[in-house]
Amino acid sequence: MAGATTLSDLASAIGLRTEEAAIIAELKAGSEEAFSWFIAHYNQPVYSLVYRILDDPADAADTTQEVFIKVFRGIKGFNSNSSLKTWVYRIAVHEASNCRRWRFRHKSHETSIEPEYREDEPFAMGIKDTLADEGRSPLENVYDEELKARVETELKALAEPYRTTVILRDIEELSYEQIAEVTETTLGTVKSRLVRGREALRKRLERHMPAFGRSPRGAQDQGRRVSGPVGGHKVEVMP
Questions:
Q1: Which helix (H) or strand (E) holds 226?
Q2: Could you tell me if 173 and 233 are in contact, meaning their C-beta atoms sit under 8 angstroms apart?
Q3: Same domain? 90 vs 141
Q4: Of the residues 111, 120, 126, 167, which has the maximum number of CB atoms within 10 A of its CB?
Q5: What pLDDT digit, counting tens, does each position of 158-196 carry?
Q6: Higher pLDDT among residues 148 and 116, named by residue
Q7: In a domain, 116, yes or no
Q8: What percent of the chain has pLDDT over 70?
Q9: Domain of residue 80, residue span
Q10: What is the sign, positive or negative, of the torsion defined by CA atoms of 222, 228, 229, 233?
């Protein structure tokens, strides 16, 4: 049974690589259908990743457009040493980081004339887009939504590069190797940043746990582990 499972997984992986190779070939050939598929498939994931790094819907939208421009311009030079997703995410993280630096240099003293961003606007509820479990009580669902919001808020407060590393691992579910490729760093650096990022997030969350019926001391006694759902995923926070 284990051998069959392994063979099945291998066949599936080969199939995915073959499919991706065909898509890349179409993109390099300038196929409009391939580009349309690419945008439909990657627009929301790229926006979500960029938005969590920038925490600004307008900047995230502009940066997402810039990411796709860079992809379209650079696709012919893509050598398939990494997966298409890893390559796209590397561009997205790079562009988001550039935007953060530009904003820090040029916008820190500006006064915005835009209306105040409200939490009920599109994409503001990024962590609240998962369906509630119908088997849970209304009060439990309220607690879940509040916990999601708190995790998202504290995640945004993490310093870079720890925030991006936690996002890529615990939300985007990239492997350590993929994160190293995306962030253009070593595997050891990725693991170090992830440990430090999770620890910083755990410390920020601990003081809020009693409000959700969880004991910070209990979390410490059980391996100092606190977790919360973000965008449909579990963020694991441990030393």
A1: strand 226-230
A2: yes
A3: no
A4: 167
A5: 999 999 999 999 889 899 999 999 999 999 999 999 999
A6: 148
A7: no
A8: 63
A9: 2-104
A10: negative
